[in-house]
């Protein structure tokens, strides 16, 4: 199988959450036994990953990687034979490995061919000085390319690139892992490490949205959202369910819900994409499946319990048969689905026998940001990816005037850029916030997820924001202000589109 052939996303177990970089032979053997006895192997979990901590301190005289015999007195072969699976080890495309021990053990830089003969590869980046550097790098394709070639030379046609979502400084501008890894890897980490908290789930999902929207994730080149935190008590039960459902529908690996596993392992290999965000309330996603069914996910961002409804007309669907992937409840010929969900909970549906409606396709009038009223530091800049090759950034306040519309409430289209990539451990969300108001009325907070890595090119087009307070037949205004609690700055704005 070559890197270009289609494949399903991986299901497996990684022991990092259990013991960080301090594994031991008995603990791993017990985990292998538990995976089998608890039904995970039968459910399709074929991969077993030791992660860090397996290496000894130095290589042997002939360059062979040494095993940490204090942790693995019988070596790794016995465990590999026990697992009887495509086990993964973990090393780094650097002089040292990403390991919590001090000093960290060796990495694979310069030893790719030797190491490729030993294992399948989860390839992280350490430069020998910094553990997991976060600044843009110019050598990603060459470093990872060496290991990719060595693995293929040894009959291994799969590699996970773990570059923590760090941009590659290419000759044409910054690129995320989704853009530069296709020739080299079958999976790529889309973000920095996950942590055991809800905001980390939000941060990674906000980073995944633009990848899925732009079609940068497909069979044979899957985005990896890092480990599941399901079972770790920092997340509520509802947060764990939402985390699980999001990861399943985005196509990384998941646990034992057979219906969600079927979504995750669907042969089409397409992830869900964001339909619309109602900021601080809920996100609505959908995605196609191989047999023509559709997966629909409502992810509740708000912090209260309440009834939420999915109106299928929002998906250009008149009616469908519905299977609730959590409760198992079904309904035929439904035009909507409602459920009571707790804070950070979700609705996960598989719909079939779909009757498609014809989209209304209303006429939108577009208003360019550079023609709006700028104040409090907002400034026009020339950027090639925007309409008219201009945008407005550093937004203090941006006010669009003379807006004509026939509707009091409307889904307004925002074309914007947010390339402010953020990383773990500092309480960030990978979204930029703005206060938006119509005709100087009550403002609402809008959270704009990452649009990509390049401030010049990566425009999110037609991001829908539901706004009310318009006066049909009159001249209206839309005001956008930065400086919300979520971020100091709003995203850069190209233009807005309003139904005529």
Automatic annotation (TrEMBL):
Q: Which EC main class describes this enzyme?
A: hydrolase
Entry EC no(s): 3.2.1.22
Keywords assigned by UniProt, alphabetized = Disulfide bond, Glycosidase, Hydrolase, Signal
Instruction: List residues of the Alpha galactosidase C-terminal domain.
Output: 280-351
Which protein family is it in?
Belongs to the glycosyl hydrolase 27 family.
| Reaction(s) catalysed by this chain's protein | Hydrolysis of terminal, non-reducing alpha-D-galactose residues in alpha-D-galactosides, including galactose oligosaccharides, galactomannans and galactolipids
Does this UniProt record's set of keywords contain Hydrolase?
A: yes
A GO BP term here is:
carbohydrate metabolic process
> Listed GO molecular functions?
alpha-galactosidase activity
- Per the UniProt record, one Pfam family is Melibiase_2
Taxon lineage: Eukaryota, Fungi, Dikarya, Basidiomycota, Ustilaginomycotina
Q: Which InterPro entries match?
A: Aldolase_TIM, GH, Glyco_hydro_27, Glyco_hydro_b, Melibiase_C
- In Swiss-Prot or TrEMBL terms, this protein is called Alpha-galactosidase
Q: Which domain of life is it from?
A: Eukaryota
